[in-house]
């Protein structure tokens, strides 16, 4: 148990502390349901007993989740943490075969699913038992003991697998609690805040950038099952959140929605965006309405709250991802690769593959530049760097300029093997419907803004870019299409 007045070291202590300090305050607002901190703590204690006594979940076990955002997922996380077991949230955007691979790799004792994914859950094979979320409501006996220590793993989250096979990052309770503290401090989250969560909780972005930090600070989380632009804008106008987390795709959907212009955004003191590269046009649309869009940089392995650009600098430093968060160290290694070290960074992948080097650094694979005052700007991925004729070319630079053309919906630059140049710059372009822009027009747009050696030699028109389930462009697939 945490000593009165001391900082919590486990997830159970985090929730217990808020239940003691502000038990009657609303922790979660989900549809018509409002769950106080006292009720959330009680639910987590009861489910911990259910897990332990009836479902046979023991310390070290894994329990998978397949479903939309739901208070039950958060209850399950806190309950498992009290038992000393781990939550494995499955990405609902994956194919069944990919879910099966993750289940086979982590061998959970059981799989909890919501009503929307009941059929999909039943179709999955394996030795795990199946439980519907409604079964969690049957728990009645609260568990008083906290069987876990800070060093005990509590969360398994698979990486996107853009450079290798997906791996499950092992987040200990200490990692999660440290990330909560860091994220809450940088975002200045207080009990007065109302945090709108629309991004998926199966990813560390939706779960760990704002949702868990908000709960650790005693704020109210306005939880929605999934992102829908109309519902999000309605929530901003009606529920008056002070903070929300978005990504470029959702920012774009909000700006392009018919209700955008007339939606009252005045309650928002900031929008945070979980992306290393943010298109300037999206940021300017919010900034023009007085809402700063802040940037948080990180990875599945880094908490993810590692480097942040706060509201004070957001409007003046568009494109930057800011400075290392308190307690997080960062260095630019050879070639400009970002290395991160801190208490929120995982040490291993499941089951026991090191995630860090001998000195405790996580090698992100992202390339960055650093200003004189220490602010960082991500310029691309090391694996995506194009080396043509001895020149280093970052795809992100080409994409940012080409993306400014009004006819371009999306684009991706990549290197194509070339006998003379080593690599030649290529670009895949998705045009807006009925735009009618020619390749010559797009070439002229780039030629007026970029050095000649950066100009694409190969152009590929596509209806959509191949992406991973988390929205990352699969450039190797574009290379195949041009070479095929």
TrEMBL record:
- Domain AMP-binding enzyme C-terminal per the UniProt entry, residue ranges: 397-472
Question: Where in this chain does the record put each AMP-dependent synthetase/ligase domain?
Answer: 15-350
Similarity comment: family membership:
Belongs to the ATP-dependent AMP-binding enzyme family.
Q: Which GO terms describe its biological process?
A: fatty acid metabolic process
Q: Which organism is it from?
A: Ramlibacter algicola
Q: Does the keyword Transcription apply?
A: no
Q: Which GO terms describe its molecular function?
A: medium-chain fatty acid-CoA ligase activity
- Cross-referenced InterPro entries: AMP-bd_C (IPR025110), AMP-bd_C_sf (IPR045851), AMP-binding_CS (IPR020845), AMP-dep_synth/lig_dom (IPR000873), ANL_N_sf (IPR042099)
- Keyword Plastid applies: no
Q: What is this protein called?
A: AMP-binding protein
């Amino acid at each position: 148990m945490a000593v009165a007045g001391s900082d919590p070291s486990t997830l159970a202590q985090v929730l217990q502390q808020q239940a003691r300090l502000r038990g009657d305050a609303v922790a979660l607002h989900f549809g018509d349901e409002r769950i106080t901190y006292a009720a959330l703590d009680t639910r987590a204690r009861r489910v911990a007993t259910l897990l332990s006594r009836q479902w046979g979940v023991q310390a070290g076990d894994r329990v998978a989740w397949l479903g939309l955002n739901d208070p039950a997922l958060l209850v399950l996380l806190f309950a498992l943490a009290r038992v000393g077991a781990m939550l494995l949230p499955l990405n609902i955007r994956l194919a069944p075969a990919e879910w099966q691979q993750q289940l086979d790799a982590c061998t959970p004792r059981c799989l909890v699913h919501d009503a929307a994914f009941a059929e999909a859950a039943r179709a999955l094979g394996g030795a795990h038992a199946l439980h519907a979320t409604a079964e969690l409501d049957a728990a009645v006996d609260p568990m008083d003991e906290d069987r876990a220590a800070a060093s005990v793993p509590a969360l398994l989250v698979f990486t996107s697998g853009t450079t290798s096979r997906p791996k499950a990052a092992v987040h200990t309770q200490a990692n999660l609690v440290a990330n909560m503290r860091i994220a809450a401090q940088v975002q200045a989250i207080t009990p007065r805040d109302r945090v709108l969560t629309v991004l998926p909780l199966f990813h560390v972005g939706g779960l760990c950038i704002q949702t868990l930090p908000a709960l650790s600070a005693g704020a109210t989380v306005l939880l929605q099952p999934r992102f829908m632009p109309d519902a999000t804008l309605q929530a901003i106008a009606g529920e008056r959140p002070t903070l929300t987390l978005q990504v470029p795709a959702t920012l774009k959907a909000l700006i392009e929605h018919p209700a955008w212009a007339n939606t009252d955004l005045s309650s928002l003191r900031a929008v945070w965006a979980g992306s290393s590269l943010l298109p300037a046009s999206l940021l300017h649309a919010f900034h023009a309405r007085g809402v700063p869009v802040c940037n948080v940089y990180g990875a599945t392995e880094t908490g993810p709250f590692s480097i942040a650009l706060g509201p004070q600098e957001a409007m003046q430093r568009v494109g930057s991802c800011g400075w290392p968060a308190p307690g997080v160290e960062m260095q630019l290694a050879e070639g400009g690769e970002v290395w991160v070290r801190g208490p929120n960074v995982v040490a291993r992948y499941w089951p026991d593959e090191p995630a860090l080097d001998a000195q405790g650094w996580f090698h992100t694979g992202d390339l960055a530049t650093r200003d004189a005052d220490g602010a960082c700007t991500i310029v691309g991925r090391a694996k995506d760097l194009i080396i043509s004729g001895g020149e280093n070319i970052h795809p992100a630079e080409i994409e940012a300029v080409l993306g400014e053309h009004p006819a371009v919906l999306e684009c991706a630059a990549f290197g194509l093997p070339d006998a003379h140049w080593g690599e030649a710059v290529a670009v895949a372009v998705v045009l807006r419907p009925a735009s009618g822009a020619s390749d010559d027009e797009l070439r002229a747009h780039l030629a007026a803004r970029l050095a000649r050696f950066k100009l694409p030699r190969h152009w590929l028109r596509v209806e959509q870019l191949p992406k991973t389930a988390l929205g990352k462009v699969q450039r190797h697939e574009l290379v195949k299409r041009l070479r095929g």
